[in-house]
Amino acid sequence: MGRVGLLALLLCIGAGSAAQAAEVVALGASNTIGRGRGSTPDGVNPGQAFPAQLERLLQSQGCRVRVLNAGVAGNTTGQMLTRMNGVLGKDTRVLILQPGGNDQRSGRGNERAANIAEIRRRASARGIKVVMLDNLGRIAGGHRLPDGQHFGAGGHALFAAHLAPQVKAAGACR
Asked: 79-87: which pairs have CB atoms within 8 A and are 24 or more residues apart?
């Protein structure tokens, strides 16, 4: 077998392995991606953010799952709604929605509930379950960073532990 044939075979094997893993998408703002921006840049690197920690936790529990981090610092729920179709794949089973507080900070607090309802509706129409991650301070308040809005790696570990049973119950594990 030539190098091109071997490469094609390896790509097919790799694609088959990836296709077997269920996909979870974490859609949110800075506390999803792991870092803030501008005047509140505190946070962790993406490998310590809750989506990466959740993926490792679920895999350690025997789940064949991939958790995609679709967080964008500063995003409002309206911006999440606009970009959600671009981050949901054909293998997405669960959408973790972490709406954050940017709607309120940007003067769009009155749009938050309607945007969340529309995100839920669109996900449901595609057969995707939605798991909410809200009230982060109640889950990991002791792990807030000095900016008061973001969390350290220990807080993200608590988010992952909080989410794992919900994500499993939503059918993410294969």
From this structure: 80/27, 80/28, 80/29, 80/115, 80/119, 81/115, 81/118, 81/119, 81/122, 84/27, 84/119, 84/122, 84/123, 85/122, 87/25, 87/27
CATH superfamily of 21-169: SGNH hydrolase (3.40.50.1110)
Q: Which two tokens stand for residue 35?
A: 């870092």
CA atoms of 52 and 68, how far apart (whole Å): 8
Hey, where are the domains in the chain?
21-169
Classify 89 as helix, strand or coil. Answer: coil
pLDDT tens sequence across 143-153: 999 999 999 99
The two structure tokens encoding residue 170 = 């939503």
- What's phi and psi for 22, nearest 5 deg? -70, 155
Instruction: Supply the pTM of this predicted model.
Output: 0.87
- What is the per-residue pLDDT across 131-173, written as a single tens digit (0 to 9) for each? 999 999 999 999 999 999 999 999 999 999 999 999 999 999 8
